[in-house]
Amino acid sequence: MTAGSHAPGFAGPVDEELRDQVASHLARHEDGVLPIVQAGHPVLRRPAVPYTGQLGDLFPELVEAMRRTMHAAPGVGLAAPQVGLGIAVAVIQDAGVSDPEDADLRERHPLPFRVLVNPAYEAVGHERRAFYEGCLSVSGWQAVVARPRTVRLTGQDEAGRPVDEVLTGWPARIVQHETDHLGGGLYLDRAELRSLASNDSMMRFWGQTPDPSGAAEALGFALP
C-alpha cells in the first residue's frame, strides 16, 4: 500500500504530518523498542485522537513496535500515548500466571496478543474486584485499584473490523487500564492511594498473595 492511501477498514485519509512524525519516531529506534514516557509527560494526560487511518501503510509498523516494546518492558498492555503518540491505539497480551490459586483468584488466564483501536468499555453488572495494579508509565510503584469485574468492550481491531465483546477478570482489567490511558487517565486516578507501594515494598509485605485484604487492614483503606 502506498503512502497517501488508507488502511483497510479505516475510512479516513492519511495525515501526512502525523505519518511523518510517527515514521521519524520509529526510525530512531531500529530495534522496534520505543522509549516509554513516564507520569508527568503531557501526552499521558491528553485524550488520544481517534484512529481513522491517518498512518496508512505505516500502521502495522507502529503496531509491531508497540508489541515489541510491551514485551521488552515487560508488560501486559501498552497504549500509544505511553510511547509518546496521542492516537487511540493499544496492544495487549498476557501469558497468565502459573500458580492456580493466583490464576483463579484474579481470573488471570492467558490472553492472546491483540490490537485495540478506539476502544471503549462499560461495566456489565455491579460486581467490582480490587487488586494491586502497576503501570509501565508509573515505573516502580503499585497500588490497589477497584474495577468492574466484567466489562463490555467495543471498538475496532487492527484491520478496522468492529469489536463488541464481554470480558471478565484480568483481561477486563487490562482492557480498562489501557483504555483509560487513551482518555488521558492513569491507574492512580482510580487507586486507593493509601495502598501505594514501591515494587520492593509491595513484594516484601503483600506479595505472598494477590488478595489485597491484608494490605487494606494494615494500611487503612476500604475494599469493595
TrEMBL record:
<keyword id="KW-0479">Metal-binding</keyword>
<dbReference type="InterPro" id="IPR023635">
    <property type="entry name" value="Peptide_deformylase"/>
</dbReference>
<feature type="binding site">
    <location>
        <position position="135"/>
    </location>
    <ligand>
        <name>Fe cation</name>
    </ligand>
</feature>
<dbReference type="Pfam" id="PF01327">
    <property type="entry name" value="Pep_deformylase"/>
</dbReference>
<feature type="binding site">
    <location>
        <position position="177"/>
    </location>
    <ligand>
        <name>Fe cation</name>
    </ligand>
</feature>
<keyword id="KW-0648">Protein biosynthesis</keyword>
<feature type="active site">
    <location>
        <position position="178"/>
    </location>
</feature>
<dbReference type="GO" id="GO:0042586">
    <property type="term" value="F:peptide deformylase activity"/>
</dbReference>
<comment type="function">
    <text>Removes the formyl group from the N-terminal Met of newly synthesized proteins. Requires at least a dipeptide for an efficient rate of reaction. N-terminal L-methionine is a prerequisite for activity but the enzyme has broad specificity at other positions.</text>
</comment>
<feature type="binding site">
    <location>
        <position position="181"/>
    </location>
    <ligand>
        <name>Fe cation</name>
    </ligand>
</feature>
<dbReference type="InterPro" id="IPR036821">
    <property type="entry name" value="Peptide_deformylase_sf"/>
</dbReference>
<comment type="similarity">
    <text>Belongs to the polypeptide deformylase family.</text>
</comment>
<protein>
    <recommendedName>
        <fullName>Peptide deformylase</fullName>
        <ecNumber>3.5.1.88</ecNumber>
    </recommendedName>
</protein>
<dbReference type="GO" id="GO:0006412">
    <property type="term" value="P:translation"/>
</dbReference>
<keyword id="KW-0408">Iron</keyword>
<dbReference type="GO" id="GO:0046872">
    <property type="term" value="F:metal ion binding"/>
</dbReference>
<keyword id="KW-0378">Hydrolase</keyword>
